[in-house]
Amino acid sequence: MSSDTTNSKGSNVGLIALVVGVIGIAIALFGFMQGWNNDDARPLMSWLIGFAFWLSIAIGMLFLTQIWYVFHARWPVIIRRQCEHFMAAFPYLLVLFLPLLAIPFLHDNPGVLWKWMNGANELPGHGTVGEDPLYTWKSPFLNIPFFAIRAIGIFGVFIVISGLLRKFSFDTDTTGDIKNTHKARILSSLGLFLCAVAMTMGAIDWFKSLEYHWFSTMYGVWFFAACMRAALASIIILTVILAAKGYLKGILKQAHRYDVACMMLAFTVFWAYISFSQYFLIYSANIPEETFWYNIREKNFDGGLNSWWWVSMGLIFGHFLTPFLCLLWYKTKVVVWRTVGISIWILAFHILDLYWNIVPGKLVAPDHAPGYLVRQFSISIYDIAALVGIGGICIFAMCRSMKKAEPIPVRDPNIQTSLDYTE
Amino acid sequence: MSESYGIIASFPDTPSFFHAAEKVRDAGYKKWDTYSSFPVHGMPAAQGQPRSKVPVFTFCGGLFGFTLGTFIVWYMNAFDYPLIIRGQPFFSPVFPFPIMYELTILLSAFGTLGGMFIMNLLPQHYNSLFNSEKFLEVSGDRLVIAIEARDAKYDPEATRRFLEEIGGTDIEEVSA
Lengths: 423, 176
Description:
The complex is a heterodimer of chains A (about 425) and B (about 180).
Chain A (H helix, E strand, L loop, with lengths): L3 H35 L2 H30 L6 H10 L3 H17 L26 H6 L5 H32 L2 H30 L11 H27 L8 H32 L2 H8 L11 H22 L1 H5 L1 H23 L3 E3 L7 E3 L6 H24 L10 H5 L4
Antiparallel strand pairs in A: 1-2
Helix pairs in contact in A: 1-2, 1-14, 2-3, 2-4, 2-7, 2-8, 2-13, 2-14, 4-6, 4-14, 6-7, 7-8, 8-9, 8-13, 9-11, 11-13
Chain B lengths: L3 E8 L2 H14 L4 E4 L7 H4 L7 H27 L16 H23 L13 H4 L6 E6 L7 H10 L3 E7 L1
Antiparallel strand pairs in B: 1-3, 1-4, 2-3
């Protein structure tokens, strides 16, 4: 299947991605060191945003692969292989997470990014983290050793499960042994639970604990919805590029794109449902420990609207309403440039959603005046460098995997159904 | 003979049935249909039918439901009998949202159901095709194409010959 031309093309893209990735990483690391030395959280968040964006795509693809196995889905077999290629990025993502994991162990102020990591960190208005009952009660979970163990466990789950799924699928190419498919199905039914726990833990540890005061039982589900949307949009873009390059030409049909786009519509609604429900429950309960999280995303301490209010409106209308209305139309789901356009749109707003979840924070007001400051919305060069750099490394990992295995699972038991798939 | 409803022709197997439909489409007939006891994939395209208009009914139903939900809550809580609940405003787009979207979903489902009935011209208790004994066998194993007399291109002799040419058998005229 994979001709020499495809191989050489793949290696070129991989090499370019690696070079771009290394340059991006170098710039982002420079920013990271600036933040590190100046005790400034914002450049560290650039790294976290870039990491979160590419991790969310990989997690979404891991979930989709397992869901397709569990439901014995026949149509997405040719798409599943592209997900398996992208899942090669997990070990690289672990390496790219290490700078963040180093903060609590090597930095003078372990709480520079996640402020609960330093008991001496001052809180706006009331004492320090160590004196804060909301921290002391949460400390059996939120402590540095357990945080590190969880991070290793989370990546362990992702790397082992994605690695095994890749191995089973690639083995089938050479042996044609149906036992591989059976093993992948059994692993997926177990793996879905493990990945759900790992993903929830990751979302709580890395994003939610930035504001450790907060309570929300829906945060993990929000991240799941975000991951699925990112993965589905990436799948559309990736498969369309592969079909245009000749790699999936004549293999990827309108029916495949249509079904992925239908799932995009479904998860657009699901994301809105989850995001709104989280807001709605907190709004209805009206407890200060919970509402502050939304308050700082709308208003400054003095009650005036801040930059996050515009981002919030942007998410409602740009991340939900626009893709929802566009994807209702049949044409958006089948005309290639429209589907790709809305996929790029969703990915762009997914990044904005990550900003909205990661960046805002309560800061101590100057001269310890009453109240607090809100870290405002901004886009720095380091954000872009981290997004491009980490992305370059992930795409390099994917291209490397593409050179090793067939472009589609040629001996999968369901490959013919997938190739013949029609609407 | 009484007034004619149209001509029906039977086809021996699904492929010839399918390709015959394509030929009727290409011959330019408009008022005609295919009848089988099972769905034939790709038949709407072979008949040259555009995509269903039912989604338009769904969308209108949903939009109406959303507006209705908003109006109900505004009318009851903010206009007719203002109520203070948990210090929330009388009206805001946040707290009544469950009602707004539940009505959106409910009325878009009604829109879909109603739209399906309207577009399928249902309910329809009588059709002249039932006058033909052969047509009744469609619920068994017969595959039938019927070209109606009200089609602009319809001509009793020419249409009968055309159906013979494209492989139709058991051709008969059905009275209205």
